[in-house]
Amino acid sequence: MSFKKIIPLLLVIFLSNSCSKYAATNRSYKKQARALAREIKEQPANTDSTIAPAAWVGTTNFGIRRPNFVIIHHTAQNSCEQTLRTFTLTRTQVSAHYVICRDGTVHHMLNDYLRAWHAGAANWGNVTDVNSVSIGIELDNNGSEPFTETQINSLLMVLKNLKKKYNIPTANFIGHSDIAPSRKVDPSRFFPWQQLAQNGFGNWYDTTNVSLPNNFNAMDALRIIGYKTKDSIAAIKAFKLHFVQQDTLPTINLADEKIIYSLYKKY
Ligand SMILES: [Zn+2]
Predict the structure, then answer these.
(1) Structural domains in the chain plus CATH codes
(2) What are phi and psi of 41, to 5 degrees?
(3) Would you state the pLDDT for residue 138?
(4) Closest residue by Cα to residue 241 from 172, 154, 182
């Protein structure tokens, strides 16, 4: 058999193996998607008893809501296979739209229009239901190791497509630790946020060569950027994990204030 014929054959064997392994969960996915489609097709019910029932008139002008944020995570697991398993077990109650492996393989696990369960209790600015407005991306990484270049390249390709397709603002590419400061520390300080920002995903400070206004309040600025600042120590730690990655102190010095000022002016 020629080399050209072997490759598609191997591909079919590989696909059928991976399909059979997840055949049951794939069937479940389709069943759940069909149930949601039925829900969407339903004529709106007038559930407010203070409004008199009226004949229903369906508008002809509508579309589907689109994600407006991307939340980046690390899996804190040891392999992509382990994460695929986690996200296909009902009892875990966690999922993400995309899982990107160390070797750059991208698993698109959920239609972008559907709501994954990746953010948990989270806040960013006035957004309190982050799952409803975001795409969740999990990077296969144990949390204490650098991310591979191949993996980051795949991530950048996925982000490029998402940003274009859904017109996601540059500022809205953020991390799980940003939106859940006291709970989450992913992605870790190994994550290349500056590289992402250079590619148009997330904000970065231009320069530390700035002079602060006399009345500048760094905590107010962090709040305006989006951080929940009720627990100020947690907010500072989250900010540093993203923007001052080598510094683990939960305090803000003058250099940090300048970074925050430079950032906050972009919001
Ligand atoms: Zn996470």
Answers:
(1) 63-203 (3.40.80.10), 205-267 (no CATH)
(2) -75, -20
(3) 98
(4) 182
Q: How would you write 218-264 as a 3-class SS string?
A: HHHHHHHHCCCCCCHHHHHHHHHHHHCCCCCCCCCCHHHHHHHHHHH
The pTM is what?
Answer: 0.90
- Selected residue with higher pLDDT from 175 and 50: 175
Which amino acids are annotated catalytic? 138
Tell me how far the alpha carbon of residue 257 lies from the centroid of ligand 1, in angstroms: 27
State the distance from the centre of ligand 1 to the C-alpha of 74, rounded, in angstroms.
6
**189-198 pLDDT, tens digit each:** 999 999 999 9
Distance 263 CA to ligand 1 centre (A): 23
Tell me how far the alpha carbon of residue 131 lies from the centroid of ligand 1, in angstroms. Answer: 12
**pLDDT category of residue 54 using cuts at 50, 70 and 90:** confident
Q: For a pLDDT cut of 70, what percent of the chain falls above it?
A: 90
Q: Which pLDDT score is estimated for 3?
A: 53
| DSSP helix/strand/coil, 156 | helix
